[in-house]
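User: You have something folded?
Assistant:
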Amino acid sequence: MQLTRLLVPTFVQTLKSLSTWLDKAAAHQKEQGAQPDALMTLRLAPDMYPLAAQVRFVCFQAQEPVYRLRGEDVPQTLRNVREEGWKSNEQPGSFDDARARIAEAIAFLSGLATDALDAGSELEIALNLPNGIIFDMTGEQYARDWALPQFYFHAVTAYAIVRNHGVPLGKPDYISHMFAYIRPGTLPQG
């Protein structure tokens, strides 16, 4: 499996979509006479992390596999992004902070070589969770069973938060990358 070709485009296109959702959310806030920073504290349920955390977790989950699949330690600067997410109830940060995090993640991923992660497919990965659970898996299993689901969980949750709070998003906003594949003449008119 070519992990770079699977993960990097997936992460980048969804991060770009997330940025667009936040832009639409900011415009919606302004139309409502509210500040975009108020978005960062919104959540789906009282026991869930707010939008600020979801954005940070998406950015973390997009970059963590790069290090794990190359057999490297996740740098403290990236672990700080995850920790900021955990603390986002007290320190949600600003809308501009969220957009900057997304831009940093896209730039990092876009700078990778086209085969940067491929050698990690058979690498043995021990994933240590903060609660003490340890998962042992290969790089391919990690990419398929952990990295992608975790990334999508937080991306979908961010989408759902802004959608649930009145931002006019729809399925085309979620899958905007698919427009590149439309067969000419098949897009419904009107």
